[in-house]
Structures are given as C-alpha cells and as structure tokens.
Amino acid sequence: MNGIKIRPETEKDYRAVEELTREAFWNVYKPGADEHYYVHMMRSHPDFIPELAFVLEKDGRIIGNIMYTKAWLEDENGSRKEIVSCGPLCVAPEFQRQRLGKILLEHTFELARKMGYDVNINFGNPGNYVSRGFVSCKKKNVSYIVDGNFPTALLVRELVPGALDGRKWMYIDSTAAACCEDTAAVERFDATFPPKEKKWMPSQEEFYIYRHSSVVR
Ligand SMILES: CC(C)(COP(=O)(O)OP(=O)(O)OC[C@H]1O[C@@H](n2cnc3c(N)ncnc32)[C@H](O)[C@@H]1OP(=O)(O)O)[C@@H](O)C(=O)NCCC(=O)NCCS
What does residue 144 show for φ and ψ, rounded to 5 degrees? Predict the structure, then answer.
C-alpha cells in the first residue's frame, strides 16, 4: 500500500486522530466541525468498541482512521440484537479518493465479523458507502426508532449475507454522539486547535437533503 500501513489505534495516536478528523471534516457537513470532539469523547463512552478503532499510517503520520460504536436493532417482537455502527471515518484530504477509505472499511468489516457482529449501520452520504456494499435501510426493512421513517442517509451493510432475514427492524443508535449537542463544549475543545475559517460549502446542503429526507417506496 505505498508505504501505508493499517494498525489499531493506540493512546499515543489520540491527538493526531483528533487533528486529522478536524481537518477531514472541516466545513464538510456544517461550517466548522464537531467530529473531532465526538472522537475525543467517544473513547470513554460505554458503546465505544476500541478493538475496531484503526488508523492508517504513512511515514509516521496518521492519514486515516475509523471508529465504531455499538448500536441495536429491535424486531417487531421487541427482541434486540447488538450490531455495529461505523464512524467517524476519515482520510486526510490530500489522500482522499485513493481507496484508503475502502481499506479502513473492509479491514474492520472482516474483524467485526470475526467478533460475531453481522450488521453495520450508519448515517452517511450514500456516495461514500454504496460501493462498499451499503444499501438503503428501506431495502432491509430497517426504520429509524426516532420517527419510524427510512432516512435516505441511513445505510445498512450486512456483514453476513442474509443476517436481516426479512423481518421489520428498528434502528437504535448509540447516545455517544449526543456530546456534540453541547456546542459550548465543542467550541472550547476546538479552541485547543489552531484557528480555522468556518464557511459554507455545497456538501453541507447535500447532506442536509440526505439526512432530512426519507425513502418512501
Ligand atoms: C469519505 C472518505 C472517508 C472516503 O475515503 P476515500 O479514501 O476518499 O474513499 P475511497 O477512495 O475509498 O472511495 C470511496 C467511494 O467514494 C466514491 N468516490 C470516489 N471518488 C469520488 C469522487 N471524486 N466524487 C464522489 N465520490 C467519489 C466512490 O463510490 C468510491 O468507491 P469506488 O472506489 O468503488 O469508486 C473521505 O473522503 C473523507 O475523509 N471525507 C471527509 C470526512 C467524511 O465525510 N467522512 C465520512 C462520514 S459520512
């Protein structure tokens, strides 16, 4: 992989991963970003899965990472199954679109499968995920617990084909990302990094559309 290696994240990588996350997400989904704060807080959340936190390293520099939390699916009888949810996932801007995101996803899919997980679900821009086997939640009968809808951005990847067996499911996400609702805490954390200009980018509107629309038929 051109001198790029993939390895588990260690404590020594924490700040570098937060810096990378800030760079990669800055202005993509909102003016500025809060994903670096999410990463920072996620590691001490009970739903965090440290065994699935991986980094890409090139010449001693962290240029990509992926993290996971637990999430759940509940069927019509109220029976729950634990699954995984990937994200944040990022690659340093100058290394994007070179299939490094693919490596992070596929490496951790394999590991998650070995750990006994059979489904991965997350909210994301479909363009980043459909070529990695993710499909619309609607196709797998997975609605979002909060409103019963099938959000366009809610994407399902069976790690074991047929794992969802046609039942009706509701997706219950981890509360780990709720830390970002404390915008003052996000700002305080962000102030520990070099200043960076917040601005509008078209990708923000694109994701708004995905996040606030649903697949209906
Ligand atoms: C999303 C991200 C992790 C993808 O990593 P990457 O290494 O750039 O992606 P890959 O090269 O593996 O390509 C992933 C897929 O994106 C799509 N893609 C590739 N180039 C693209 C382009 N120029 N425009 C739009 N989509 C493109 C393709 O579907 C591609 O699959 P393919 O390789 O089978 O064609 C990376 O772009 C990133 O860090 N973005 C900012 C943070 C972010 O949005 N993270 C995801 C949260 S939803």
Answer: -90, 130
- Mutation test residue for ligand 1: of 97, 122, 131, 154, the one with most atoms within 8 Å of CB: 97
Domain segments of the chain as ranges: 4-176+199-212
Residues 12-54 pLDDT 10s = 999 999 999 999 999 999 999 999 999 999 999 999 999 999 9
- The atom number, within ligand 1, closest to the CA of 203 reads 44
Distance 148 CA to ligand 1 centre (A): 29
Q: In terms of CATH, what superfamily is 4-176+199-212?
A: Gcn5-related N-acetyltransferase (GNAT) (3.40.630.30)
Q: What is the pTM of this model?
A: 0.95
Ligand 1 atom nearest to 97, measured from its CA: 11
pLDDT category of residue 165 using cuts at 50, 70 and 90: confident
Q: What angle do helix axes 183-190 and 35-42 make, rounded to 10 degrees?
A: 100
What's the gap between Cα 205 and its chain centre?
Answer: 19
The continuous run of DSSP H or E covering 121 comes out as strand 119-123
Q: Which of 199, 141, 190, 193 minimizes the C-alpha distance to 170?
A: 141
Q: For residue range 121-146, what is the model confidence (pLDDT) as tens digits?
A: 999 999 999 999 999 999 999 999 98
